[in-house]
Amino acid sequence: xxxxxxHSFYIDPIGIAGGLTLWWSKDTNICIKQYGQNFIDAxxxxxxxxxxxxxxxxxxPYKEDKxxxxxxxxxxxxxxxxxxxxxxxSNVVSSQDEKLGGxxxxxxxxxxxxxxxxxxxxxxxxxxxxxFTWSNLRxxxxxxxxxxxxxxxxxxxxxxxxxxxxLMDFAIxxxxxxxxxxxxxxxxxxxxxxxxxxxxxxxxxxxPTVRDSWESVMHTRTSNRFGSKLRRTSLSLxxxxxxxxxxxxxxxxxxxxxxNAIKGxx
Length: 266
Hints:
The chain is of the alpha+beta class. 33% of the residues lie in helices and 24% in strands. It contains five helices and 14 strands. α1 (63-78) links the parallel β5 and β6 (84-89). α1 packs parallel to α2. The longest helix has 44 residues, at 222-265. The radius of gyration is 23 Å and the shape is globular. The relative contact order is 0.08.
C-alpha cells in the first residue's frame, strides 16, 4: 500500500495477530520514544509547532493480557504531565451504549480500563460520523457492532487543542472503521455537502458504481443499514466523478494536441 508518506515505523505481527504501523509526512516531526508489541509511543510536533506526546495502541484482545497492558499505559502516562493523546484499538467496550448485538456488556470486562482512565485523568473524545467502529461483518441477527477504537487525551492536550474533532470514516477492506483526529478542527471550506449531478446518469459506469456501492453494505443492522448505504454510495460517486473529470481533461488535452498537430502539418 502506498501512503505517500516519507517516514514510517513498523512493529511486526506475531503470526497473523497484532502488528502496528505508523506513517508520517515530512511536515510532521516524530521521535519514537518507546514501543512494544501493542503500542508505539512518540514525541510529536505538527508543522514545527509545540511538542506533545502520542501513544498509538492495539489493545490485547485476551482478558488475561489486559491488566498488564493498561498498567503499562498508566506508567507511560505518569511520565507525561503534559499534553498527551492516545489513539487506537482499545479492544474494550466501556458501556452497553457502545455495543449492539452479542452478549450483554459486562462491567467486569472493562475494570482495568476504567482504573486506567481514572488514574490517568483522561478524556474520551467523542467520535463524529457514527457510534460503532468495529463490526463482525455479519448480517441481520448475527451482526455485532462495538466501539473498540477510541481517542483519549489529557486535560492539557484538550486545552491546547480546544477545537479538536474525531471523525469516523468508512470501513473499506477491514472490520474496523478508520478514526481521524483533527487537532485544530475542521475548516469550513473542507466541509462540502454531497450533491448528485443529473449529468452522471449519461455515463454508462454510473449505474454500476451506485449498485456495487449500495450492495456492498450488508453487515449492519436494519436500523443503521440505510444510512451506511447512503454514505458508502456518496463516497464512491464522489471518487468516481473525480476520476471521470480527470479522464475527461486528459482526453480534452489529447484532442487539442492532435488538432494542433494537424494544423501544424497544414
